[in-house]
Amino acid sequence: MKILVTGGAGFIGSHTCVELLNQGYEPVVIDNYSNSNPVVFDRIKKITGKNVKFYEGDIRDKEILRKIFKENDIFGTIHFAGLKAVGESVEKPLMYYENNVTGTLNLLEVMNENDVRNIIFSSSATVYGEPSEIPLTEKADLGPTNPYGQSKLMVEHIMQDLYKAENNWNIVLLRYFNPVGAHESGLIGEDPNGKPNNLFPFIVQVLIGKREMLSVFGDDYDTPDGTGVRDYIHILDLVDGHISALDLLKKECGLEIINLGTGAGYSVLQIIKEFEKATGKAVPYKVTERRSGDIATSYADPEKALNKMNWKAKYSIDKMCVDMWNWQVKNPAGY
Ligand code: NAD
Ligand code: UFG
């Protein structure tokens, strides 16, 4: 069964391709490599022994999308392609709306033209903004605080309107919490451009000597140790959630919104300790100002994923750190 994977060369997309191949699916990737490298497909081949069919192109280009649907009998799409840097989205909102919203509209139109109406979309816990409840259920208030988060919520609304108008669509909106870690082989992982924005990639760059020290953004939050608390989820668990979501599509599920998180929160200081345990090295850090737009605490209520898709995260925080470090050590300069 062929699955179109937009953004399939990226962090989450590449790991998803591996699991799709392991499960006997045939991923067909479109990626413009704006935040990735096609060398990832050689790595995927090393892991799985299989080739991924890939097209270099942009989802804002309808012609290439039409070509892909013409050349492949696609069951459905897993839609990862998008820009994801929160800070950059504040500086370049039009670029974010154009890429994430216009790109998705194009994709939906071409899917419709081809009578393919099954889609899984990468939404984000960022749509909840300042949490109205903890843990966050899918019914919590929404209110993203930056253009990146707004673009995710806009796409959610577009897909909900589409489903209302044409209920022969099957749509799973997955709200990811904080995906981290890497494939156990150390052959694929997250390869951020320039200075990492996120905690895990920053810590491993400090540990490998690429960065001097970690800045802990604030220790005066209303949390047990004053630092920010998040729901980190192993990339392999996240990918597993997509395989479960495909099963849901096959059951003609209509539209579902589902959190993908573990349900457990860890603070920045706890994560530092976990890395120290996993690597035997100290993480030099200093406490600095809060990062603008950050919230104190965010973690998921993962019940719905269990009830609807029989999915539950199984990997622990120490494995997230060990696998992230293994990828970093084996690829000190990324791909
Ligand atoms: P990533 O940047 O590694 O992967 C995205 C891929 O999409 C990249 O390979 C990039 O080159 C490609 N791409 C971007 N715009 C494109 C376009 N117009 N046409 C074709 N390809 C395009 O990011 P990721 O971490 O793998 O995230 C995948 C998706 O999950 C994104 O939509 C992201 O917003 C969402 N998400 C990520 C996180 C996270 O923390 N990683 C959290 C929540 C949601
Ligand atoms: N942090 C630091 N120092 C750093 C980086 C992060 O102290 O150098 C802290 C943050 O203040 C926060 C925690 O570590 O308390 C996690 O920060 P990340 O940047 O790793 O993750 P966020 O929760 O801020 O955001 C991430 C993605 C968003 C996504 C969100 C929810 O960057 O795109 O998870 O999925 F929307």
Describe the 3D structure.
- This protein is an alpha/beta fold and 335 residues long.
- The chain has eleven helices and 14 strands.
- The protein has helices at 11-22, 40-48, 62-71, 86-91, 93-113, 147-165, 199-207, 235-250, 268-279, 303-309, 317-330; strands at 2-6, 26-31, 53-56, 74-79, 118-124, 170-176, 178-180, 214-217, 229-230, 232-234, 255-260, 266-267, 285-288, 297-298.
- Strands 3-2-1-4-5-6-11 form a seven-stranded parallel beta sheet, with helices on both faces. Strands 12-9-14 form a three-stranded mixed beta sheet. A two-stranded parallel ribbon has the order 7-10.
- Helix 6 links the parallel strand 5 and strand 6.
- The radius of gyration is 19 Å and the shape is globular.
- The chain binds nicotinamide-adenine-dinucleotide and uridine-5'-diphosphate-4-deoxy-4-fluoro-alpha-D-galactose.
- Nicotinamide-adenine-dinucleotide binds next to helix 1, strand 2, helix 5, strand 5 and strand 7.
- Specify the overall morphology: globular
Strand content: 15-25%
* Estimated helix fraction: 40-55%
Bound small molecules, deduplicated: nicotinamide-adenine-dinucleotide, uridine-5'-diphosphate-4-deoxy-4-fluoro-alpha-D-galactose
- Major sheet: 7 strands, parallel
- Output the number of helix runs: 11
Defining traits:
globular, binds nicotinamide-adenine-dinucleotide, 335 residues, binds uridine-5'-diphosphate-4-deoxy-4-fluoro-alpha-D-galactose, 11 helices, 7-stranded parallel beta sheet, alpha/beta, 3-stranded mixed beta sheet
